[in-house]
Amino acid sequence: MAFLSFQKTTLIFFHSHVVLRICGFLYFIHSQTNQTIMKQILVLTFLSVVLFGCNSPAKTDEVKSDSTAKTEPLVYPYAAKYSLNWQPGDEKNAVIALNSFKKFSDGDVKGCFSYFADSVEFIADKYYFKGKKDSLMVSMNAMRADLASMSVEPDTWITTYYPDKKDTWVTIWSTERYTDKKGKVDSMYLVDDVQVKDGKITVIDEKQRAYPEPKTKK
User: Fold this and answer.
1) Which pLDDT tens digit goes with each residue over 184-214?
2) 42 Cβ contact list (under 8 Å, min separation 6)
3) What is the pLDDT of residue 44?
4) 104 and 113 in contact (C-beta within 8 Å)?
5) I need a surface site. Which of 60, 129, 153, 212 has the fewest CB within 10 A?
6) Contact (Cβ atoms closer than 8 angstroms) between residue 168 and residue 93
7) Using an 8 Å Cβ cutoff, are 122 and 198 in contact?
8) Neighbour order of strands in the sheet with 116-124
C-alpha cells in the first residue's frame, strides 16, 4: 500500500510540474492578450491536469507465480532414512560447533573439547569412536601434536532442526590444510555433520575427500 501511495504522489508531482510549465507559457501569452480570458484559461487548465493526475490509476507490476508448484505432489525415487521434516535451527549451535573447530585448529585441544558433552560419538573415514570425551581427547591430542600448523576454511554452514527427532544438526563444508612436523603440506575437503544438544556437541559425523596429487613437472 505504501508503494502505491508513493507512485500516486510521484504522478501528481509530475503533473503539477507540467502544469507549472504550461502556466508559465500561458502567462507569457497572458501579457499579450486579454487579462480576463487568460485567467479563465489558466484556471481551467490547472483543474483539468490536477484531476487527471488524481484519477489516473498507478501502474503496479503484475506478480506472477507458478501455482502448480504449490499443488503438484512430489514423488521421490527414494525414501529418506533419517527425515525430511526439518526447519532452520538456532544459529547459536553453529557458533558452538565452529568455536570447537577453531580451538582444535589453533592447537587448543582442551578448549576444543570444552564444547563436547561427556559422552560423544565420532565417525570419520575408517574410524569410529563412541564413549567418554576424555578418551577421545587423548587420541585427538596426539593427532594434533603431529601437526606443526593447521587451518580450517569453511565454505558455508547450515543449522537444521528436525522436530520429529528433536535433533539439531550443524553441517559445515570446509577445507582443512595441514603442515606436519616434517614440513609436508596436505589438504582435504570435509563435510562435518555436528549434532548439538543442550549446548554441547554429542556427535560428529565427518565425510572427507582428498585432493588429487599435484602434477609433477617434467
Assistant:
1) 999 999 999 999 999 999 999 999 999 998 7
2) 23, 26, 27, 30
3) 60
4) no
5) 212
6) yes
7) no
8) 87-88, 147-162, 167-180, 185-197, 200-210, 116-124, 127-132
Residue 176: CB atoms within 10 A of its CB come to 19
Phi/psi of residue 44, each to 5°? -65, -40
Question: CA of 192: how far to CAs of 97, 101, 155, 158, in Å?
Answer: 10, 10, 12, 11
CA proximity to 157, closest of 91, 215, 107, 84: 91
Q: Which helix (H) or strand (E) holds 90?
A: none
Cell of 83: 527425515
Give pLDDT < 50 ranges for the chain: 1-14, 19-20, 23, 26, 29
Is 16 within the bounds of a domain? Answer: yes
Per the structure, the complete domain to which residue 38 belongs is given by 2-55
Cell triple for 54: 488524481
Question: What one-character DSSP code corresponds to residue 163?
Answer: T
The structural domain count of the chain equals: 2
Are both 138 and 189 inside the same structural domain?
yes
The answer to the question of residue 218 being in a domain is no
